[in-house]
Amino acid sequence: MNGFKICAVICLVALVVGIAGATMADPMLTGFFEILDQPTGWPFVVTLDLMVGFLFLSFMIYFVEGDVAKTLYWAVPLFILGNVVSAVYLIVNLNKIRGRLSGAAE
């Protein structure tokens, strides 16, 4: 496992632990919905930024996979589960991504 995969696995574990802790502390997501009730505050802007990042990552997944069905397979859970999905995608597909990037360099 190379350095990037090790880093991605560490981040994945940290995300899972953080999400598990937040879920136990607030299983009904009341804190999250309170954030959405403040559309002019920083928490809302940070959440919006995260969602736009998920959209950009979904585009990248499409460019790597070249298939709408495969993209949706990753993108739908990405918007629900967050960067846990992006970490898993990167770990599983790192060699494919490297191949696409090295062949597509312009």
Describe the structure.
This protein has about 110 residues and is mainly α. It has one domain. The protein is built from five helices and no strands. Helix 1 packs antiparallel against helix 5 and helix 3 runs antiparallel to helix 4. It is globular. It starts with a helix and ends with a helix.
Brief summary of the model shown:
The protein has one domain (3-103). 84% of the residues lie in helices and 0% in strands.
Features:
106 residues; 84% helix; mainly alpha; single chain
SSE topology:
Elements: H1 3-25, H2 30-36, H3 42-65, H4 68-81, H5 83-103
Beta-strand fraction estimate = under 5%
Measured between the Cα atoms of the first and last residue, the distance is 28 Å
The number of helical segments is 5
| SSE order, one letter for each helix or strand | HHHHH
Rg (C-alpha, Å): 16 Å
Tell me about the largest β-sheet.
none
Helical residue percent? over 70%
Kindly give the count of domains. 1
Shape: globular
SS-derived structural category? mainly alpha
Count of DSSP strands: 0
Average pLDDT for all residues: 90
Low-confidence stretches: none
